[in-house]
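Task: sequence design from structure.
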């Protein structure tokens, strides 16, 4: 790891129609390196996803550049202060999806679940007629999850549609379905998928677990354990 002072880590994603996404790889990589920002960004025709880290000023420069480059009004962002940069280099990857579900026609820009703020989430998941589903992988669930959350035992996110098809009878009996993931991006896809199947009362935690950690006081939390993150920090909890 690289020791730096006042490191800022930012997780980000944005769904945006990018037919020209391959043309953005080189200028984005160059700009990140120019500003000494490290991490991983994924570009696809549906948008951008990733995590970057560097000085606060440098990270803000890169985020402004991304907004301009992608012509998107806003990014779903979470910021963290870290003592060490959990990356060794900067990568900008091109993929078919910014989060892989493997189902054609799923577009959160057209149809998505109902967003619930962290405060609204606590009220929602306490209701007896709400089915709470953790759409993360099973090893993430084992580290920590919300009280009463159902574990679909997913090895990878693209297993979720298979699980839904196998449990349609049970799912249709529930008045409301609430889903959550680490930063919100997997729920953008999972709730869009459910809406396409005809489920209307489908909710997801706005900004994911990371936003919940930032906004909910420890004495009000319904979370148990820690949250796995996909960098060298491994897992984080309430601070």
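Answer:
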């Amino acid at each position: 790891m690289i020791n730096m002072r006042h490191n800022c880590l930012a997780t980000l994603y944005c769904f945006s129609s990018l037919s020209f996404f391959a043309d953005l790889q080189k200028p984005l990589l160059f700009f990140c390196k120019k500003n000494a920002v490290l991490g991983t960004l994924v570009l696809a025709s549906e948008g951008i996803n990733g995590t970057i880290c560097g000085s606060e000023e440098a990270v803000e420069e890169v985020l402004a550049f991304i907004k301009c480059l992608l012509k998107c009004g806003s990014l779903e962002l979470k910021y963290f202060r870290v003592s060490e940069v959990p990356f060794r280099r900067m990568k900008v990857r091109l993929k078919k999806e910014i989060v892989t579900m493997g189902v054609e026609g799923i577009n959160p820009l057209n149809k998505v679940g109902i967003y619930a703020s962290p405060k609204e989430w606590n009220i929602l998941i306490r209701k007896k007629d709400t089915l709470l589903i953790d759409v993360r992988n099973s090893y993430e669930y084992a580290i920590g999850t919300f009280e009463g959350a159902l574990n679909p035992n997913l090895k990878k996110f693209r297993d979720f549609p298979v699980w839904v098809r196998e449990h349609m009878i049970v799912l249709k009996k529930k008045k409301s379905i609430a889903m959550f993931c680490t930063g919100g991006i997997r729920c953008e896809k999972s709730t869009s998928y459910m809406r396409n199947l005809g489920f209307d009362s489908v909710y997801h935690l706005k900004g994911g677990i990371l936003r919940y950690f930032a906004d909910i006081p420890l004495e009000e939390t319904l979370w148990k354990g820690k949250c796995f993150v996909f960098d060298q920090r491994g897992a984080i909890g309430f601070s």
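The chain has a mean pLDDT of 92.
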